[in-house]
Specification:
The protein is of the alpha/beta class and about 325 residues long. The protein has twelve helices and twelve strands. It folds into two domains: about 5-170 and about 210-235, NAD(P)-binding Rossmann-like Domain (Rossmann fold, 3-Layer(aba) Sandwich); about 175-205 and about 235-270 and about 290-325, UDP-galactose 4-epimerase, domain 1, CATH 3.90.25.10. The strands form three sheets. A seven-stranded parallel β-sheet has the order 3-2-1-4-5-6-10, sandwiched between helices. It starts with a strand and ends with a helix. The structure holds nicotinamide-adenine-dinucleotide and thymidine-5'-diphosphate. The site of nicotinamide-adenine-dinucleotide (NAD) has 31 residues, from α1, β2, α4 and β5. Nicotinamide-adenine-dinucleotide (NAD) binds near residues 10 and 11.
């Protein structure tokens, strides 16, 4: 099966491309990626896949590529909650309209569209876990734009009988994640001895999933998933943010003096938790627990300064100053 992997130069998309190539299923993969600040061609360097630089909102480009493949896996998105709070417009364009452009092309070509989505579309949950039947109640501009994409996916299936699927994952972590996200940010700041900004009291809970475990789930859903269905993919461990940061401090030989509690994120979701029984019913199981996954992740960042070094300057440095400069200076 030849795949069009959109957003395949980003964090999860590139891990998925590596996974497919390593599994001997990489033949004919075409990656379409706009190469925003989050897209890095080096994430898929050395792999025998075609990289097309372009926008999923470009209808002509998308149609031409969709006609060459057997299925679309859509990772392309603006993906960071804090940036969506600062500037939501691009999230609506890519995550909603871009999804529509892909869906229309896939429907017309009669091929499968697998939408990569997030637990954040369900909103926050104090107790228990979200199932695929839970209501969609997103809270941030990011999660609302992802929910918009998911709803259009559902509408294309219901209205046109399009062959669509949605995989909703909990928080991913692992190699090649941009340092704007909590785990790589904390790892790199700890390695440098810089303060680690923790929003509020750090009691918010996330359900951590090692990225390669999400990749195996995506492969299952793509191969065995039933058209029109949603599949939740949650990680094996739930931790408050403060415990995540403490684990990173321990692994990097730093102490808690680096923790800097800063003002809370606007509209901060308190807890995410996913029930994954439906995906487990396809024979999937997460293989990597948090303790092992975070150790592997810290090790990867230690060994790959050539990857993250350039990110510590330029666009990310400016973003970091806007996001944290004042709070960390106080
Ligand atoms: P990322 O920001 O690392 O990568 C996104 C990629 O999409 C980048 O390579 C970027 O260049 C590309 N892109 C952005 N706009 C584009 C456009 N208009 N056209 C083509 N390419 C475009 O994000 P990620 O963390 O790898 O997330 C991938 C997908 O998984 C997203 O859809 C996200 O919503 C979803 N997701 C992420 C997580 C997580 O914890 N990171 C959890 C659940 C779901
Ligand atoms: P993040 O990695 O941005 O993922 P998401 O918002 O999609 O869950 O954040 C994970 C958690 O960490 C979230 O509760 C917000 C918190 N956080 C901080 O406390 N400090 C930070 O600097 C960042 C980026 C996140």
């Amino acid at each position: 099966m030849k795949l069009l992997v959109t957003g395949g130069a980003g964090f999860i998309g590139s891990n998925f491309v590596h996974h497919m190539v390593e599994s001997g299923k990489g033949d004919g993969i075409v990656v379409l990626d706009k190469l925003t600040y989050a897209g890095r061609p080096e994430n898929i360097d050395g792999l025998d896949v075609e990289l097309v630089e372009g926008d999923i909102c470009d209808r002509d480009l998308v149609r031409g590529l969709v006609d060459r493949v057997d299925a679309v896996v859509n990772f392309a998105a603006e993906s960071h909650v804090d940036r969506s709070i600062e500037s939501p417009g691009e999230f609506i364009t890519t995550d909603v309209f871009g999804t529509f452009v892909l869906l229309e092309a896939a429907r017309d070509a009669g091929i499968r569209h697998l939408q990569i989505s997030t637990d954040e579309v369900y909103g926050s949950i104090d107790r228990g876990s979200f199932t695929e039947a839970s209501p969609i109640v997103p809270s941030s501009p990011y999660s609302a734009s992802k929910a918009g994409g998911d709803l259009i996916v559902g509408a294309f299936q219901h209205t046109y009988g399009a062959d669509t699927l949605i995989a909703r994952a909990s928080n991913n972590y692992g190699p090649q994640q941009h340092p704007e996200k909590l785990i790589p940010l904390a790892v790199l700041n700890a390695l440098h001895g810089d303060p680690i900004p923790v929003y509020g009291d750090g009691s918010q809970v996330r359900n951590w999933l090692f990225v390669r475990d999400f990749c195996t789930a995506i492969e299952r859903v793509l191969d065995q998933g039933e058209a029109g269905q949603v599949y939740n993919v949650g990680g094996p461990d739930e931790l408050p943010n403060i415990e995540v940061v403490e684990a990173i401090l321990e692994l990097t030989g730093r102490d808690e003096s680096l923790i800097e509690h800063v003002g809370d994120r606007l509209g901060h979701d308190v807890r995410y938790s996913l029930a994954s029984e439906k995906t487990e019913g396809l024979g999937w199981q997460a293989a990597v627990g948090f303790r092992e996954g975070i150790a592997r992740t810290v090790e990867w960042y230690r060994e790959n300064e050539a990857w993250w070094g350039p990110l510590r300057s330029g666009e990310y440095r400016e973003y970091y100053q806007r996001q944290y400069g004042q709070a960390l200076a106080e």
